[in-house]
Design a protein that fits this description.
The protein has about 150 residues and is an alpha+beta fold. It is built from three helices and eight strands. The radius of gyration is 15 Å and the shape is globular.
Length: about 150
């Protein structure tokens, strides 16, 4: 499994299309959640698109970005339906944490986790932050991985 981590401008059109289609397949179609999946974070200068492909098909994806002066963030985390059950989510989050540490070593890492995945993210050291909320009809919990004191 070969992870790639690229800024928006470095993605070729085929890869960009594959990533966007994969995100829509999971977050809009599979989760039955019609919302504007593509946003300005995708094209922000410091956003890193972390992904793996298998025979031209998206296996895993996450984006790492500059959320604020205090936090970097991991978002749009997915493992494609056909790639699930192989431990790829653990590898993906490990890579995403490493990406955030490399890009923004002075910042804690934020994630807006779907609540059914809280224990998964806790296994990496993320801690609950604030109260549970609904985002596009799906329960979420803000979490922070503390890297700073």
């Amino acid at each position: 499994m070969q992870f790639k981590c690229e800024q928006f401008d470095a993605l070729d059109t085929q890869t960009l299309f594959t990533i966007m289609r994969g995100r829509v397949d999971v977050f809009v179609v599979e989760q039955k959640c019609p919302y504007p999946e593509l946003d300005d974070v995708d094209i922000a200068l410091n956003t890193q698109h972390l992904y793996t492909l298998d025979n031209g098909q998206l296996q895993t994806y996450a984006r790492c970005y500059d959320k604020s002066e205090q936090y970097s963030a991991i978002g749009r985390v997915l493992v494609s339906e056909r790639a699930r059950g192989n431990g790829y989510a653990t590898l993906l989050i490990t890579e995403a944490i490493d990406c955030c540490k490399a890009q923004w070593p002075e910042r804690d890492i934020y994630i807006g986790a779907q609540t059914y995945l809280l224990d998964f993210y806790r296994s990496f050291g993320f801690e609950d932050y604030k109260s549970e909320y609904l985002e596009d009809g799906i329960p979420h919990q803000d979490m922070i991985l503390k890297l700073t004191k």
